[in-house]
Amino acid sequence: MSLNAEKLKALEIRPEAKTRSQGGLWIIFLGILAVCAICAYLAWPREEDSRRVAGGKKGAATAASSEAAANTPAHANTVTASAPVKEAGASVLTVSGYIVNRERIELSPRFMGVVKWIGVKKGDAVTNGQVVVLLDDAEQKARVAEAEGRLASARVVVAKAELDQERMRKLIASQIETKQTEDDLRLRVESAKASLKEVEGGFQLARTYLDWTVIRSPINGVVVEKLVDPNELVTPQSFGGTRGPSTALIALADPKDLQVECDLNEADLAKVYLNQKCRVSPEAYPDKSYEGYVAERAPEANRQKGTLQVKVQIKNPDHFLTPELSAKVDFLAK
User: Are residues 176 and 293 in the same domain?
Assistant: First the structure.
């Protein structure tokens, strides 16, 4: 029995051997906690996820609306967003152009002659009716004197014919002369009067040519170009200045009547209309601006350039605006 007891005791498991090591269990438990923390972190809602979801919903809604629009019948009423409306006074188009005189007047001689005197130079101001050029008038004065002599002679012929007619009437009343003689004298008087009228016309023509030797300014303005000098021979078609054939002695313009010439592209024509308000700024003085309006649209476009010319009238121009310089034009909304 003692032997068996010893064998059983040897086979018996000791209490300290029954207790397992706790280190492995804690490692497993910590691993499970780490996995749960990672899952909780990934599952927690964020602002970026909300935006992404909203964007996806918006894209889905856009795709759905596009598909619905594609499937909508042609006769169905649709609502479209209107284009933004420009505020009054805002610029709808900006282009560049050149400042020009609205009217350029060139004074020309009426006949061939020699310039006797020219009283202006380029840049001088002139007034309406001011004498600016004198042509040699010796020939015209001689023609006037000749016409005056013929006129005096024609008047004498008329007076003699009327005197003869009056005497013949007395003789016919005394039955000394016949009625036929009276008719002849009456026709002679009428012929003399017709000749007198013709001579008077020649006299007026000679006086007109004499008046044409004095050339006056027809406007208040400025001399923008002088094409001749004293003692030069001029004709109605002369070769003065550097512009080739010309019929002018001087060129005048009104500095208070200026426009801006602009070439508009075809795509911009719908933005411009007559009397549209504009703002003009000279390139030389960008800090200055002037009011204006669309005064003219060309009746024909330029096919080569694909443009249409528009002229903008400048209100109240001053000395800062110089013709032929460039300027910027803003076409304004209503």
Answer: no
The reply to whether 304 falls in a domain is yes
Picking from 142, 117, 113, 119, the residue whose alpha carbon sits closest to that of residue 132 is 119
Please report whether residue 176 resides in a domain.
yes
Contact predicate 195/187, CB 8 Å: no
Beta strands 91-101 and 258-265, pairing class: antiparallel
Say if CB 227 and CB 248 are below 8 A apart. yes
Task: Dump pLDDT digits (tens) for 123-156.
Answer: 999 999 999 999 999 999 999 999 999 999 999 9
Write out the two tokens for 110.
């009426």
Task: Identify whether the C-beta of residue 97 lies closer than 8 Å to the C-beta of residue 307.
Answer: no
205 shares its domain with 247: no
Query: Is 0.85 surpassed by the pTM of this model?
Result: no
- Is the Cβ–Cβ distance between 325 and 284 less than 8 Å? yes
**Residue 74 — φ and ψ, nearest 5°?**
-65, -30
Domain limits at 38? Answer: 24-57
